[in-house]
Amino acid sequence: MTDAEADAEPVTVGLLTESYLLEWEVRALERLQRETDVSIELVVTNASNADQEAESWNKRDRIGLDDIAQFVGLLRKEKAWTLVLAERNVGRLLGDEQVLWHRHSVENVDCISDADHVRCEPRTEGRWNELPEDVVETVADRCDLVIRFGFGLVRGDVLTAPEYGVLSFHPADIRRYRGMGPPAIFHDGRDRAGSTLQRLDESIDGGEIVAYDDVSLTGCETLWDVFDRLAALQIRLLTEGVENLCDPTFEPTTIPDEQLGEFYYRDQRRTPAFAGRILAKNLAGRLRRQLGRQRTPAGTPEHSSDVADYP
pLDDT tens-digit profile of 195-251? Predict the structure, then answer.
């Protein structure tokens, strides 16, 4: 480390979140703090999507009347995709814990306990969200860099308020799969998948690439295994991306519009053909995994998509 690096002030980081952080997001932040000289100073929480019992998602062990009502509501909105979501929930009841997707209310996350917390309601137009002017000014004053873990599609002055911009993950290669990402990848039967950490601009999945890597999908029997594999990759990529941006010799990769991948709209997943293929593959994958367990001698490690294998 040079004298200049030793004397440099820590990079101040802000977060844009919902009322909770997912387990993989917490692990990514813990790793970032452990391996870099950053200080998480500000947490801006989306007050329009409050979930006062975030942790209850982690402990569901039966189907109740609320679940049935939710299923009916989802059926109107998500159509055939509702059956895929129902399969995921049944899988959880049968022991698929989905640990990386456990929810932690922001006030319960130790690694951000020293940060200042601000709640705000964004101005919404269509699917886009803009932060209020006073919040943008706070971000500009307090943060060198912002990491987006919530607020959906973000546009406006907040994108340029911090020196290093706003970082966000797209769980796919934006040069091949924009929009849905993992569902389209799993639908197409790809044997590898990547994740893009991008500096946001006012496009959808078209920002500058600050970190990218891909992983094998061997052992991913269901769509949810693919999500797990990519989330585990993102735990590492966040640190890599922040280190890249703090390196004065680093230049983010700008992808020309003509080189961006096809955009897969969410409406596509609601069609019977798309949702039916995902559901069939998930059920077949669960069956293969169960048969594999029955054939595996006691005490023999299984090859699986265990997140511990992909830190």
Answer: 999 999 999 999 999 999 999 999 999 999 999 999 999 999 999 999 999 999 999
For the chain, the distance separating the N- and C-terminal CA atoms, rounded to the nearest angstrom, is: 26
The amino acid occupying position 10 is P
- The verdict on residue 3 lying in a domain is no
Q: What are phi and psi of 40, to 5 degrees?
A: -85, 110
> Which tokens sit at 127?
């699917």
HSE at residue 212, side-chain half, CA atoms within 13 A, is 19
What domain count does the chain have? 1
Contact 96, 304 (CB under 8 A): no
Residues 6+ apart with CB under 8 A from 74: 82, 85
Q: Which residue blocks in the chain are alpha helix, DSSP H?
A: 3-7, 23-35, 65-78, 81-93, 133-142, 182-188, 223-246, 266-269, 272-295
Q: Contact 23/102 with Cβ under 8 angstroms?
A: yes
For residue 52, what is the DSSP state?
T
CATH number for the domain that contains residue 101: 3.40.50.12230
Which residues, at least 6 apart from 165, have a Cβ–Cβ distance to it below 8 Å? 145, 146, 159, 199, 200
Is the pTM of the predicted complex or chain greater than 0.90?
A: yes
For 2, list phi and psi in degrees, rounded to 5: -80, 165
Confirm whether 111 is domain-assigned.
yes
How is residue 260 annotated by DSSP? S
DSSP state letters, 14-41: EEEE-SEEEHHHHHHHHHHHHHS-EEEE
- Asked whether residue 272 carries a pLDDT value surpassing 70, the answer given is yes
Question: Do the domain assignments include residue 309?
Answer: no
Is residue 144 one of the residues assigned to a domain? yes
For residue 28, give both structure tokens.
């990514």
